[in-house]
Design goal:
Mean pLDDT of chain B: 85
Shape of chain A: globular
Oligomer: heterodimer
Distance between the termini of chain B: 8 Å
Helix content of chain B: over 70%
Mean pLDDT of chain A: 85
Largest sheet of chain A: 10 strands, mixed
Amino acid sequence: MTLLHAQGRARGSSRSLNSSGTRFLRGWRLVTATLAVLLLMAACGSDTSTDEPAPDEPASESATTLAPDSGESSSGGTLVLAVEQWPECINPVTSCANATWTIWSVLIHYLPRLMELDQSNTYVASSLLVEEPTVANGGLVTADDGTFTLTYRLNPDAAWSDGEPITSTDVWFSWRAGLDTTGTLSTIGLDLITEIDHSDPHTAVITFSEPYAPWPTLFGGLLPAHELGPDTDIADKWNDEITVSGGPWIQEEWNQEQHILVPNRTYWDTERIPQVDRVVMVPREDTDSELLALQTGEAMAAFPQPFPGARERITGDLTYKVAAGTYMEGLWINQDAPDRRFDMTRNVRQAVAYALDRERIAEIALGTITADPPVLQCTGWNPGFGPWCQDDFARYTQDAAKVAELLEAEGWTRPDPDGLWKNAEGEELVLAWNTVAGNNRREDVQALVVDMTAPLGIGWEIINYDPGELFQNRLPALNFGPVALFANSTNPDPSVANLYDIDGIPTEENEYTGQNFTAYRSQQASDLAFAIDAEVDPAARLELVRELSQILAADVPWIPLYMLPNMIIWDPNAVSGPGAYVSSPYGGFFDMFDWTVHVE
Amino acid sequence: MARYVLTRLATTVPILLAISFAVFWAANQVSDPTVALTVNPRIAPEDITRYREHLGLGDPILSRYLQWLGDFVQADLGISLVRNGADVWPIVRTALVNTLVLVSLAVALSLVAGIAIGAISAIRRGSFIDYLATTVSFLGISIPVFWLGLMLQLFFGLYLANWLGIGPPLLPTAGLYSPGQQGFDLADRVRHLVLPTMALSLQLIAVYSRYMRASLLDVMNSDHVRAARGRGLPERTVVVRHGVRNALLPVTAQAATDAGQLVGGLVVTELVFQYPGMGRLFVDALYGGDYPVLLASVMIVATAVFLVNLAGDLSYGVLDPRIRRGAR
C-alpha cells in the first residue's frame, strides 16, 4: 500500500512537472533559437574593416574554379602562408635571430645581403654588390703581416625603402652592432675584424686580423645606420617591427598572430619586385595544423618539417616538393663516454659502420616522406651546399667479413657464431645508444639497427631521454652513449672546425664549452679543419676539405646516415611558384617575390 | 565571513609559493633557452657562455628563484628570456584577456546549456529526451578535449565546407582572427571563437547537465516543494522559483570547483586551435625555458583558480539564505 501510494505520487509529480516543463521548455527553445541565430549571424558575418578580400577566400573555391585548368595566374592578390614556428621577437642581432624561422619568415625578406646563396646554395655576389670580391680583382688580399683585407664595392643604386642609399657606413654599423649589442648572439668572424674603412660610401674595406675564409657568411643581414644608429647597441630596437627595408618587401605588421608584408616598389633589384599585393603569414605551429590550413584553403603554402607518411597524407589538390635540407643525422660516437665498457677504438668504430646498411636505414627513416631518401656519404658537409661533400664514406656498406676482420685484429672473438663479439676481458660488444624518446623516426631506426646488426654480433642497449635531458644535460657534458642518434646543422661554408677542434672537446677544465661532441682526438684533423677556415682561395680550400674528408672517413668519428629533408607544400590551384628554394638555408619562402596567386 | 576569507587567503600563500618553486625547479630541469645554441655551428661556445651570463642562467637555481620571488612580490614579473628582454606583464596581459574571453564564453555557454539540458532531463525524467540527454552527456564526458577539437576542425573546416561546396570554411579552424585582418572586427572575432568555445564547453555541458538533473530531481521531491504545491502556487512558479533556484546551488558550487579542471582543457583547446591565450603561452614558455613567463602564467592561473574556488564557496551564502544566516 505504501509502495503503491509512493508510485502514485511520483507519477502525479511527473505529470505536473511535464505540464510546467512544457512551458519551461518553450522558454529554453526561445533562448536556444536566439543563441543559434546569433551564432549563425556571427558565423556568416563578413569582414568589413579591410578592403582586401579575406585571405582565406581565394584558396579553395575560387582558386579551383579560376585557375587550375589554364595554370595561368596574374599579379596581385594576397598570398597566405602557414608558418610552423613563430618567432618570439625579430631583432636581427640578439638571440631572436637564432630561431631559424625568424630568418625564414622575417629577416630574409627585409635585410639586404652582401654575398648571397643562389639556388645551388653557392655564395655569389648579391645585387647589392657591383662585383664579387676575388683575389683576381683585388677584393681579397692577404698581407705579409698576416692581415686579410676584404673589399666590397656597393651598387650605387641600392637604397633603403625610405630612400636613403645603402652605403659602407651600413656595413660598418652592422659590424659594430654585432659586437656591441647587449645580448648579441654570435660574434664569430666579426671579432676578427679590426677595422672597416667606410670613408667611400660605395666601398667598404674590411680588415681582418687573420685570413678568414668564411667571409661570405658575414653581413648576411645589413642594418641601416641612419635608422638604428648612432648607438650601436640595438638590443631595444626592431624587436617587433622592421621599420626600414632593403629587400623586396616592406613590413606592414608583425605580431604574434600574423605577419603582413607588402611589396617594396622602390626596390632597386627590379627582377625581384614582388608579384602579389600582399603576403600574410600566420602561425600554424604543428604539421597537422599546417596541413589542415592548406586543406581548408585557410593557407596556400607551408614549409613544414617533413613528417612521416607525407607521401600518403598530402592528397587532393595539394602538391609538395622534398629536397635535402640542412640537418645531417647520424650516429655520433662519444669516445669519452663515461659508461663505456671498452674503448671505442678506430677498429670498433669502423666495424660498426660496416655493420650498417645505411641505405635501408635511410629508407626506413625517410621512405614515407620521399621516394629517394638521400644517404649522407661525408662527415660534416652538406651535399647540397657546393662541392665540399666528397662521398668518402660511401665505402661503408654492410660487410660481415669486414666487421669480423676489424674486430679480430683487435682481439675480439665470437665463440658463439650466433652470439655477440667479446673482447679479451670478456666484455660483449654491446653499445649503449641514446636518442630522443618519443621521436618515432629515430626509434624506428634504432629498432632496425638492432635487428640489422644482431646477426653480425653487435648488440645495443637503448636508453632514450627527453630532448632537454639529452641536449641540455648530457650532450654538452659528453655524458652519453657511447652512441647517440641526433641531427646537427650544416652551413654552406665548409667550415667544420667546431666539430673536430681538438681543443673543443667539452671537459670539466674548459667548463664543457666546445662542440667536438665525439671527443675525436686527431691533431691532424683539427689542424686541417682550422686550415680550411684560414684558406681564402676556394680551389685550395677544396683540396684541404678533400684531405680532411679522407682522414675522417678512415677514422669514423661518427657515422653519417642521411640528410633530413626539407619540404614545401602548396595548393597549385591557389598559388604558382613555390619549390625553387626548398633546400636553401634561406627557407622555402625566400623567393615568394616570384610567386603569383590565382585571383579573379 | 571576513575571517573565513582571510584564513583562506593565508593558507593559500604557502601553496602558491610551493607551486611556484616546483614549477621553477621543474622548468629548469627540462628546458633551457640556450639549448638550441649549443648545436649551432655559427655560435661560438664563448658566445653561449656570455649569453647565459647575460640571462643570469649561470647563478644557482635557488638564488635565481629568490630573485624572481623578490621581484614578484613587488609586482615585477620580470623580463622574458626568449623575447629579447621584453617585459613579461604585457605578454601575459594579452594572453590573459584572450583566455578570459574564451573561458567566459565557454563557462556561460556550459552553464546555460548544462542547466537547461539537466532541467529538461529532470522534468522529462524517463522520457526519450531524458535518455538521449543522458547518453549524449556520458559521451560528452568521455570525449577528450583534444580529440573533440580536432574533430570539430575537420568537420567544420573541411568536410562540411566540402559537402556544401562553399570553399573556405564558415568557421575558421585556428587563430584569433582571419589572416590579413587589421583592426578589431567583432564578427570575425566571434567566428574564430565558435569552435574553441564548443570544444571547451562540451564536456562541461555534459557534467553540468548531470549535476543539474540530479539536483533538480532531488529538490523537486523535497518537503518545501511539496509545501509550495500545497499552497496552490502555479507549477511553473514551483519549478522555477522553488525547484531550479535551489537546484542551482550545487551546480554553481561545482562550476567553481571545476575551475582547476577547466585549465587543463583550456591548454589543450588553445593549442589545438592556435588560440593565443594563457594555455598556449604556458606551453610555449615551458618548451622555450622562459621561466619568468612560465611562472607568471602559473601564478596568475593558480591565483585565479583559488579565487574562483573561494567565490564558489562564498556563493553558497548568496544563493542559500540558510547558510548566510548560519554564517552570522
